Amino acid sequence: MSQMLLKRLEVQINADLLQLALTHSSFAYENDCDSNERLEFLGDSILGYLVASRIFKKEASLTEGDLTRLKNSIVSADALSVAAMRIRLGDELRLGKGEESSGGRKRLNILADAMEALIAATYLSAGIDEARKFVDKHIIPMLGDHLVLREFADPKTTLVEKLTRLNRPTVRYEIESSGPEHKLTYRASCYSGEFLLGQGEGRTIRSAESAAAAQALANIREQ
């Protein structure tokens, strides 16, 4: 399966590092092995540098504050999780039984963390130029269209606007929760009228709705 992922990524990643990048802490705990958390730490810094460098050169008219807001939108968990969905990263993750059964493959924070881990794995395997290639292909393209960037940064608002343009019923969300009281997982189902557009999960209602809206936008594009 990971070979199929590499074809979608179109970058060089060492096999062992790729496996590590796909290994969530829940799987590591159950199988007494390392998780992707250290790679995530490194990938976060590499991603920040590469995005900051790119927008500094591309958006010469923006102020420091505007550059910061733009960068934060691109490297946000919402944006990274949508990018992860587009490469079907959730299908490749190594999850513990609990995360697997509770829908971890669609969980926003897990997908975002795995994207950062993949960036670090690419860097360690083949250097900064290959990491830049990863970021340029899968994350930077949103800079080409601020409407696309808006989708990544605020999928809920983008979905409302898109449904309005399509003359479809307004969006509504149905929320379910599961798990212990101190560690609830929320699952949002996103509807237009009676039609289910997408679903998503998160540790908060807001993140679950954002994930559901992002999935809805992806599904609308495929229709």
Describe this structure in words.
The protein has two domains: 2-153, Ribonuclease iii, N-terminal Endonuclease Domain, Chain A (Orthogonal Bundle), CATH 1.10.1520.10; 156-222, Double Stranded RNA Binding Domain, CATH 3.30.160. It is built from twelve helices and three strands, in the order H-H-H-H-H-H-H-H-H-H-H-E-E-E-H. It has helices at residues 2-9, 15-21, 25-31, 37-58, 64-74, 77-86, 97-101, 108-126, 128-138, 146-153, 155-165, 205-222; strands at residues 171-178, 185-192, 195-202. It has a three-stranded antiparallel β-sheet. Helix 4 packs across helix 9 (128-138) and helix 8 (108-126) packs antiparallel against helix 9 (128-138). The longest helix has 22 residues, at 37-58. The mean pLDDT is 87.
How helix-rich are the residues, as a percent range?
55-70%
Terminal CA distance = 26 Å
What's the total helix number?
12
Highest-level CATH class of the largest domain? Mainly Alpha
Mean pLDDT score: 87
Give the second-level CATH assignment, the architecture of the largest domain: Orthogonal Bundle
Q: For this structure, what is the CATH homologous superfamily of the largest domain?
A: Ribonuclease III domain
Provide key terms for this protein.
223 residues; mainly alpha; Ribonuclease iii, N-terminal Endonuclease Domain, Chain A; Double Stranded RNA Binding Domain; 2 domains; 3 strands
Q: Would you summarize the structure shown here?
A:
By secondary structure, this protein is mainly alpha-helical. The chain has helices at residues 2-9, 15-21, 25-31, 37-58, 64-74, 77-86, 97-101, 108-126, 128-138, 146-153, 155-165, 205-222, and strands at 171-178, 185-192, 195-202.
